[in-house]
């Protein structure tokens, strides 16, 4: 339940601003209050951003075993599943790959980033307990003034469940193919000024492919205190993953070959990851209609994995320890003007090691490849507000200034050689270690939104924004070949969007078109050097609709058509389409409740064809998946959910590309049936 003192960035929002599945079987008017991307609540009709909210009911109904199953409902978003819990993200973009590419996305829990600025990981969404969340907020395109670096292509923010006002408990068990099993449990209560909730889950999967299973555990422990002066929201979150990893299978259309679908060419690969996060959010109301919020937090991560996709399968170990602080002050200066400002900062100690035990090609020496530490300091100041310019015109605005410091310390021999100083037989080693260095990056971002009311039910919305991301530490210090100094600048993105939205009791929609231009994209050139110089352009149309046809029947549709292209010749011919960037994405859902105790959902997801490499010579064809879900309530406490994924049992690839002269695929799983039994008491 969302209270007045909600988590940062938590949003309870109507379908007028995004795709939110209804939380009751009967049509109701959209909610009128929302907690926005400004970290504070506002009226729904005051928000111009391209927002999608996935509700708790939707999360529980989908019962995702991988984060892609829930986030792929969002227009313009594609989460490509790797093996196990691994993923790659696209938001109004192609799937971004390569060292540091994940820096284009701001992944957060209750508004606090899952990783420190400059130390992203493409798979970091598996750290967060999205399976037991209150909602998931998605902002498409650059974030607002409260986000800053990394909020370049979008924001994904998982909102934790607040304590219940009365004692409640939940327990469910779930079983599926390949010895899949999951247990989820939670308990919550409020006693006077104190409320708490503990949420636990653990799952096991032997894996569809050979030797590709995983075990994962997650925990959220939240405490809310409502005092006379201060309201304090605290949470301890932890996760652990132990995963065997299956690699690509090779060969054109290999994903259609039944005899190869369980093939794992990398049975030795694995990934182990653990994380712990803690925050306390202190909030108080002041004089003259003001509010002050300050949130100190701590973050810890550890990961090791075998890089099966590289010759010699080197082992990588990385981790970070962070102490940070978010603060904001809000003031209503008049009925028409609200302003806010604040400071954010983080101090991070991070490390990365890479080593190889077995002999490989001449350029890949055994022994240590990298062993370095980075001390990082991040600080930012932001300001923003809302202005009711006329009775029918609302303006949202914000600006931010960020500073990022890196202090890099190489712990082994500098240069392009084996760790013992010997030359590689090929003359040039693949890996290069720069000398100790210090770097500083400074940049600014802004957002400007306008909402023009055309009528009681219809608005025109427009947004302009400038976002950026600083180079990630790995792009600066994890170098290759003869590059011993990466003289990199920040990536930047300019965005403009205009749309039309409408909201009635039983029907809501939003249609928008956007244009985004990215400059100084960090790429790896033909000499394997990390350099700026890439440019891309992204254009698209997005739409979502929700219609309660009758009190027992609801229909939804979300769709996008986009074109993502290279805008210079840095990587390939200007005008070529970016690889792994489908032009068409669409999904539709029909929810039918023939009885008060029964709910049936049919979901269809379509992904269009896309190019597999930047030269646009090879393609992956489109595919369409269908999923069926049936929830049956037997009593007020007892229920079951039957889920059938890939109902029509089609052959498809979760992800495809073309590299090193061959097609490569992560195989999509065949029809799978899951049964969940649960009790609420």
Task: Briefly say what this structure is.
Helix content is 2%, strand content 56%. A hairpin with a 2-residue loop joins strand 36 (653-659) and strand 37 (662-667).
Salient structural properties:
681 residues; mainly beta; 22-stranded antiparallel β-barrel; five-stranded mixed sheet; 3 helices; 2% helix; globular; disordered N terminus
What does the model show?
With 681 residues, the chain is mainly β. The protein has three helices and 38 strands. The strands form seven sheets. The protein has a 22-stranded antiparallel beta barrel. Strand 12 and strand 13 form a beta hairpin. The longest helix is centred in the first third of the chain and has 7 residues, at 56-62. The chain is globular.
- Count of strand segments: 38
Q: Number of helical segments?
A: 3
Which ranges are low-confidence, i.e. pLDDT below 50, for 5 or more consecutive residues?
1-30
The Cα radius of gyration reads: 24 Å
Structural class: mainly beta
Main pleated sheet: 22 strands, antiparallel, barrel
Into which percent range does the helicity of residues fall?
under 10%
Mean pLDDT rating? 91
Q: How does the overall form come out from the CA principal axes?
A: globular
- N-to-C CA distance: 17 Å
Which band does the percent of strand residues land in? Answer: over 45%
Write the topology of this structure.
Layout: E1 33-35, E2 41-43, E3 51-55, H1 56-62, H2 68-71, E4 77-81, E5 87-91, E6 105-109, E7 112-113, E8 135-140, E9 154-159, E10 168-176, E11 180-191, E12 194-205, E13 214-226, E14 231-244, E15 249-250, E16 270-286, E17 290-306, E18 315-332, E19 337-356, E20 367-390, E21 393-410, E22 431-432, E23 437-453, E24 458-469, H3 473-477, E25 479-480, E26 491-503, E27 507-524, E28 530-550, E29 553-566, E30 584-595, E31 598-607, E32 610-611, E33 619-620, E34 623-633, E35 638-645, E36 653-659, E37 662-667, E38 672-680
Parallel strand pairs: 6-9
Antiparallel strand pairs: 1-2, 3-8, 4-5, 6-7, 8-9, 10-11, 10-38, 11-12, 12-13, 13-14, 14-16, 15-37, 16-17, 17-18, 18-19, 19-20, 20-21, 21-23, 22-25, 23-24, 24-26, 26-27, 27-28, 28-29, 29-30, 30-31, 31-34, 32-33, 34-35, 35-38, 36-37
